[in-house]
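Reading a protein record of the kind used here takes little practice once its layout is understood. The reader may check this reading against the record printed directly beneath this paragraph.
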Amino acid sequence: MLLDLKPAFGFQCPACGYVEAHRVNLFDFSGAAVISFKCSVCSTLVAAAGRKRGKGIWLRVICFFCEETHCLTVSLKDLFQGRSRRYLCPGTGCHIGAAGSAEEVKELVADFEEEELAPGPTEDFKAFFFNPDVMYQVLNRLHETAKKQDLGCSCGNPGLAVDVYPDRIKLHCSLCNRSLVVWARTEEDATVARTLKVIRLGDKETVNRAGSRSCSRLEVDKKER
């Protein structure tokens, strides 16, 4: 049996939404070494991995969907034998990563780009949010916008920090400190979110596209007023 010594890990950037596969050498996991994976588009840290005691690799993935860091275990045996698998966000049921043979991982992450949120909010999702159905719709809109690389800041930063609260989502640019709050409490908030085809912090069009209701449901910092 041929051993696969150069598998791949695939992730979606939690900041800009870019999906890509990262090739690694299994010998890099020797000792206490920690491998960091960064987005090739915006340089955001997307995941880290290291050797576990025994025959596994620990993997910490920053989730694009819920902004939590998920702790996973990858089997070294599976990697050596070229077996691939995908990993899910426990809250949304969406794919957040993949590990295995380089060719299969490239195919798996390509599927991520076609994926939307799970068919409906999971129980964990429902327990956290003020209005789970509306939050689901708003997250889905942001997900679609990020996939098309239409989510960023007018200062040129494509990697926005995303804070998810029970009733709103805050987008923040660490370079120029602009921010935008997208509310997710009512059906009208979901309608507002659906109008946001392109989101650029600092661009008046981002707010104006939402119409007259945007001023009350989309909040911008003092730089935008």
